[in-house]
Design a protein that fits this description.
- Strands 1-2-3-5-6-7-10-11 form an eight-stranded parallel β-barrel.
- Helices cover 32% and strands 18% of the residues.
- The chain is of the alpha/beta class.
- The protein has a single domain, classed as Glycosidases (TIM Barrel).
- It is globular, with a radius of gyration of 19 Å.
- Helix 3 runs parallel beside helix 4.
């Protein structure tokens, strides 16, 4: 069986304080404290670059506004948590529809220059912090881009980072919203580059009745096994999950390349018993391939705290409602 052997099997959560345009723009120390207390060692920060620019100009970086990221990195170190800083909204691209970008990262030279500038700023700012404590995730869930255009942007940008900080670990999300591994970039494993997959398959379970996915969609009944996927066609079961993540594990072993699952989880509208059955199979499959994961999110509709899931039995945890069954499942795997 193929296995990922380069990266630690980090497990944890995404923290959404600097995520979309109406985010609070801060992180909370409590999240790091509680994540550590619960036994996890990883947080991913999906970031929106507009929080640290002036005049709505992608080339006007105000580094004073990056202090919120500095603080998150310090909290990670304080609580023994690896921090992965990534661009959910990068100059020229985001899967979120809350802003129209001034150019296209994949097609416009100006977009690539802005993207490089922001990552070079991060590389200089965090040089000296070891990759065991901090990694960079280039851009969240690339889609509607050719493999050739994506390869070009990723190679240029990771090499710009490594010209400043050769030891920085960089993670590249797979194509098609993080679902397709990229063996064409496997040679970058020698340059401290890894890849990141997703755990939102099948979407008919993970995003059941999530209105931001498609407000007009008539969701079929959520079942596991036998879950329906809209993007990756057909019905899914554990065997199909094994084949899917087996592709990632094969790439990892063939290129001696790290793989981590940067996002995953199940929205709170999915029937609770279906959620737990799917999650147990998913986490067991990831574990057998030695791939770590980060739940989206920690607090809220995908999380283990304050998720408001019908059927879940919550226990009080520092004033929050903790889904103990889901926690136990995550700790098991």
């Amino acid at each position: 069986m193929y296995r990922q052997t380069v990266l630690p099997r980090w497990r944890g959560f995404n923290l959404l304080g600097v995520f979309v345009m109406n985010s609070p723009g801060t992180f909370e120390e409590e999240d790091f404290q509680l994540i550590s207390e619960l036994g996890f060692d990883f947080v991913r920060l999906p970031l929106n670059y507009t929080f640290w620019i002036d005049y709505d100009d992608p080339f006007e970086i105000n580094e004073r506004k990056l202090e919120v990221v500095d603080q998150a990195v310090r909290w990670g170190e304080k609580y023994g948590i690896h921090v992965c800083a990534g661009f959910h909204r990068a100059p020229g691209y985001s899967v979120a529809k809350d802003r129209v970008e001034p150019f296209d990262l994949w097609r416009d030279a100006e977009g690539l220059e802005a993207f490089k500038l922001h990552w070079e700023t991060f590389a200089k700012r965090y040089k000296g912090i070891p990759s065991s404590k901090l990694s960079f995730n280039m851009v969240n869930e690339p889609a509607d881009v050719s493999p050739e255009a994506h390869d070009r942007v990723m190679r240029i940008t990771t090499r710009a980072i490594h010209a400043i900080d050769p030891d920085r670990l960089c993670l590249l999300d797979g194509l098609n919203y993080g679902n397709v591994p990229m063996p064409s970039l496997g040679d970058l494993a020698q340059e401290n580059v890894a890849q990141s997959c997703r755990a939102y398959i099948p979407s008919g379970i993970t995003h059941f009745r999530a209105q931001w996915v498609d407000r007009k969609r008539n969701f079929p009944e959520a079942k596991w096994p036998g879950g329906f996927a809209s993007q990756l066609e057909g019905l899914w079961d554990r065997e199909r999950l094994e084949r899917h993540y087996g592709m990632w594990a094969a790439m990892a072993e063939n290129f001696h390349m790290g793989v981590h699952c940067g996002e995953g989880g199940c929205f709170n509208q999915t029937p609770y018993d279906v959620t737990l059955r799917w999650m147990e199979d998913l986490l067991d499959v990831l574990k057998q391939f030695n791939i770590g994961y980060a739940l989206w999110n920690f607090k809220g509709g995908f999380g283990i705290l304050d998720s408001e899931r019908k059927g879940a039995q919550y226990v009080d945890f520092h004033g929050h409602q903790l889904d103990k069954k889901m926690l136990d499942l995550m700790k098991k795997y």
